[in-house]
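Posting here for the record, re: coenzyme A.
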Amino acid sequence: MRIRRIEQNDAEVCGKIWYEAHKAISFAHGYTSEPPSEEFGIGLIKSILGNPNSWGVLAERQDRIMGSIFLHRFPPSPVAVIGLLTVHPSAEGNGAGRKLMDAALFQARKQNHEQVRLVQSPSHIRSFVLYTKSGFTLREPLFLFQGQPLKGGTNACSNNIRHVRDDFDISLCNELCKSVIGFSRELELRKAKDQGIATIVERDGVMTGYAAGIGIGCHAVAKSNKDLKALIANASAILGPGFFVPARNRELMRWLLENGFLIGWPANLMTIGPYKEPLTPFLPSLAY
Ligand SMILES: CC(C)(COP(=O)(O)OP(=O)(O)OC[C@H]1O[C@@H](n2cnc3c(N)ncnc32)[C@H](O)[C@@H]1OP(=O)(O)O)[C@@H](O)C(=O)NCCC(=O)NCCS
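Prediction output follows.
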């Protein structure tokens, strides 16, 4: 088995494998497939290959691609993220998953990333075993929530919401993020600001939370659940198939369920290296 860098012309095969592997798992457990179609899988892998902060390798045997893995950076965040690890169902059990993971963790160390994170699909025991054996610890069980923003339709959402406007707002968000999770997620926040989806919640003129969008690729941190609810309720849209909520946040989960949101699928946030337990409510992205 050979491990090598993924080239643009491998995207089609890798995208198909990603789709097929997830479809098989979702079907077996009665969930909607995470990648909605083969074309989506291929498109996503092509776009990852064009991202200078992403790195990917594949495993092949006798010129047949067995699977692939990606590692992503979000500078200046100290965290590296493993995303889209897939081995074709017919190639499972040959150690390809472990070899790909070893290669990605080696690359993370080369990049001086002490902290590595991923979001795992708990319905798949193979991946949980592989991640545990590779050194990951389960930190937060998550659920993907699906529904529509409530547009201030509950009294929990009376706080003032506005867009992130400038560098001063960004620095306020960074400070809050550092105090809650230990570091800032400025790259993602700036991207969300440029897309017009980053919002701030204020109470009595003081910033008490922000969301870099509400959706599967977005994160949010807040001083209280009231602030987080306001950010969710007033989002302009839920981006992608839904957003992840830490299952231990019973108050937020209950509020979402009472307001008509549905649970799409479960997930687990797993980490290697130092981990600061968030001190106040947060929403993780698909990455971390
Ligand atoms: C997850 C995935 C990448 C694993 O690939 P793989 O090549 O089968 O992985 P490996 O064989 O290297 O590792 C799996 C390990 O789980 C172990 N395992 C599997 N089922 C187990 C069980 N029920 N209890 C204990 N161990 C188990 C295997 O023995 C193996 O460990 P070993 O290498 O020490 O023997 C692959 O199954 C896949 O792509 N699945 C679908 C997509 C997916 O779930 N991706 C991850 C998203 S988070």
